[in-house]
Fold this sequence. Notes:
The protein has 352 residues and is an alpha/beta fold. The protein has helices at 80-86, 124-137, 158-167, 193-203, 218-230, 283-289, 325-330, and strands at 4-16, 19-25, 41-48, 51-58, 68-73, 93-97, 114-120, 142-149, 172-178, 187-188, 211-216, 238-242, 261-268, 271-278, 307-312, 315-317, 332-334, 338-340, 344-348.
Amino acid sequence: MSQFHKLTIKEVKKITPKAVTVLFDVPDTLKDKFQFEAGQYVTVKKEIGGKELRRDYSICSSPLSGQIKVGIKKVEGGTFSVYANDDLKVGDILEVHEPNGRFTFIPNKSISRNIAAFAAGSGITPVISIMKTVLKEEPESNFVLIYGNKTITDSMFHDEILELKLKYPGRLSVYFVYSRTQEENSIFGRIEKSTVNFVIKNKHKNIDFDSFYLCGPEAMIKTVSEALKDTGVSNSKIHFELFTYTSPVENVIPDAVPEGKTKIKVLLDDEETEFIMDKKTRVLDAVLKHNLDAPYSCQGGICSSCIAKLKEGEVKMVKNQILTDGEIEEGFILTCQSHPVTDSVFIDYDDV
């Protein structure tokens, strides 16, 4: 089981009035543990105001760079994002979990592919890592980016994207979409079905895309996914990651969850623990209550930090926006969303 490590901040760079990139100094002794795939994230742990916070931030650097750099956009009413933008400085130390995530791209320099990505706001963070990887490590592949923001000023990595476009002419196509300002050589409005059709069916109508990567708010992902499917794109080609932090849903218990207790066995870090829990309690909450150091972050069903494999018994998930039908059939569950519905269950955190 991977874990948290104390890392020193090497650089904090302001990239928009409300966003920074944070570069971590990873010592040689931890280099292997912090190797990552393009599109993955790290979970950052920090105590602020006497409360432990955990937040996921996608890595915006490419694996070849050897850097762990994340982008953090200030969220109105947020806590850690405000701290990172206003107070975090070089030399500070944060606890950082080893890279995780399933929204990934694995390069193969011997093949030629056409990749397209739709990103909105801070959803560009994992996408730019994927885009750099495609361009650097697959010299025969092409990339199309559709990137939505309110204004140019709000656009994270705007200048870096333009530099990449100049560096890879003919291989990188970029469509900026702005909802509040009309800019030259850009699309006015939001990323909608018409945007998808304009880019995929008009500007690149002769291209057979191998994969689509979508990252941003749920509404955008739903709109783009449906529009792509309407054009004949198979579901297997569409990869997405929600990029909105969701607070835990309180007191929402599916009707299918019965009254009573469950005997739960948990395998974590090669150690088995057994205890009795209430079926109305979520598995992750019960595990943490018994002082087991299970992985977790958002607790809202939009990240994959708390994933485990159900070896015995049955659970009911309140929300699932991450796991595919195939993964569920294999037994994977989000423990932060799972209620046991049988009298005994066996949860394996190690077999993921």
